[in-house]
């Protein structure tokens, strides 16, 4: 697969017109606005698009709403990591010569329209988890986190979660699009906040707001004529190891232990080459376990790795510089927004939060109940 | 459904391959599927083994005893759930091997009362005429 390295580029990224609580807009409106804005960012039009990638609703609905007739669609929907994985799939389709311009699109009225599609009451999750109130990601991830705490120590884990929450908030305070742009958070405020699902305090949990995002991936030939500097997809891999949290093989590590090394090998990089880590932060715990799973540190060493605000502005490990799902935006499926920030940082467009000399970004999406991971290595 | 439902959340709808599981729960017994090729029990019930994708599987009765593998305490009301908060969600590691998602009951929902690894045993909660949930309590 290494011959696919650099065979496609991200050339356009954007959010929908406004992120935030109660936009009043449908998911499809967020899809459309984000796609319009991302194509404009790329210097392309909807007429140029020949492939639609989305997690929901169906590509049929999206293509019809956009008024196009794609010759290639991919509706991979494996949780918030889906869009990261779409980039990998788009790379494959582009390198195979099937398509030239892939539009990956996301819109979700996470706040205005909180309900997910109605549960199939006969599905395994509905028979064996839902009746007990294991009903949503906070419960699923909290049980994984508590197991981690049991193995590696509660106090140490708690401090790591606080470090991640506070550092991520500091980045959000530098991003005017962030939900918590004007709201700082101290360590005391973290520790004093209310429980959502023990062991998660409120700031351990991502936002749920409305928004959309889109990302345009094109062939090297198309990239030459786009408006902005291409961001190359140098490494890409995905992996999945369960659906339900109670079926997770090891609650203390995600299968990023597989997708991470595979993507890095494809790109020919090592951990020390990463200038910016964009790590899906549905919860603080997601970051902790993902850093370990990706091999930035060993099992149980995440707390030491993130200590002393190492991932905050001014620290020596730039991570989640948009303010993350915790403090910038999380619509329910956040993976798209990892792509936007990595692209902006690699282009040097990140303003007050710009990472100096940012050449290589590792993007890791986690979806479902810590179920699926997609890892990309992007570079300029 | 002649009697009033005591369900505090969505009521499961058994499928053909889980009818036996739910029928046994109604009789206050906990049964698991076993893969005969590997000799390992598994949860949740599936006709075909998730270990080998073999059709050579059987049912075994669980002792209903196990240990607390992990838990969390829900403090926030959840849409479509009417039970009191806080409450304890958990995974129990059964003596036969599999993890089973559940609630821990008959104990105050406070971390000081719960230790991962502590012994627990099944207790049955009839929520409708046909559905009984396997919950667990400290031994």
In short:
The complex is a heterodimer of chains A (380) and B (139). By secondary structure, chain A is α/β, with parallel strands linked by helices.
Question: Could you please describe the fold and organization of this structure?
Answer:
The complex is a heterodimer of chains A (380) and B (139). Chain A is globular, with a radius of gyration of 19 Å. In chain A, the strands form two sheets. Chain A has a nine-stranded mixed sheet with strand order 3-2-4-7-1-8-11-10-9, sandwiched between helices. Chain A has one domain: 3-Layer(aba) Sandwich (Peroxisomal Thiolase, Chain A, domain 1). By secondary structure, chain A is of the alpha/beta class. With 139 residues, chain B is mostly beta strands. Chain B has one domain. Helix content of chain B is 6%, strand content 37%. A five-stranded antiparallel sheet of chain B has the order 6-5-4-7-8. In chain B, a hairpin with a 4-residue loop joins strand 1 and strand 2. The N and C termini of chain B lie far apart (33 Å). The mean pLDDT of chain B is 95. Classes of the chains: A alpha/beta (380), B mainly beta (139).
